[in-house]
Amino acid sequence: MNRNRVSFLVVLFALVVGGCVEERAFYILQNQAPNESCEVVTDEKSSITSGLLDISLSPKQGYRLIPLIKNLTASSQENDPQQPERNALDLRELRINIDASEIPLEFPSDLLSYSVPTSGVIVPGGVRAVLIEAIKPELLNAVVLPKGVRPTLHLEVTAVAARLGTNSLIESSTFNYSVKLCNKCLVQEVLATCPGAEDAFVSNACGWPQDTGPVTCCRRGDQDVCIGAAK
Hints:
The chain has 2 helices and 16 strands. The protein is mainly beta. A hairpin with a 2-residue loop joins strand 15 (215-220) and strand 16 (223-227).
């Protein structure tokens, strides 16, 4: 056996037995699309490749992202079945960095770079989807868009987890995602008052002014409130 192959096998053995989690084995695969009941699922075929957010509401709503996070490390129990799993990952936070350079405004740094707490354990070979507000409403409050103008916000999202075997933190590779902003491209109707539970209306399942439409909203006091589809 040549020296290079021996070196490779030594490194591979150390990764599996020592329980080392490499960055490329821990990553965000995609942004999940909620199902028809607005439930968060882990079906890898249900994804949204880029976002669209209607900011015509008052007050404006942020953008909801559902990262599907994967842990492709080998189980430490394959070589040591009597010991607790060391390669499971306990999610701690998602770090967001936003490039808003297409909008000619100055934004406070804490609206462009921040972390969002999250939780949940991902076993080796497993996936987990988490719902977060990836773009804050406060960032959008000063944005006024003429109809037809659609600037893009470019997001870099990184997951952070603690490895159960050592409690050491590990950071995933960066997930890049873009969100276009629009004015009244998805919110096609705002009712004068919010309907009762028995009233029929047209809206998307989640009642979110993003990605798919149309979404129906209504007035509640001095605010516009989006509503989900009638079941």
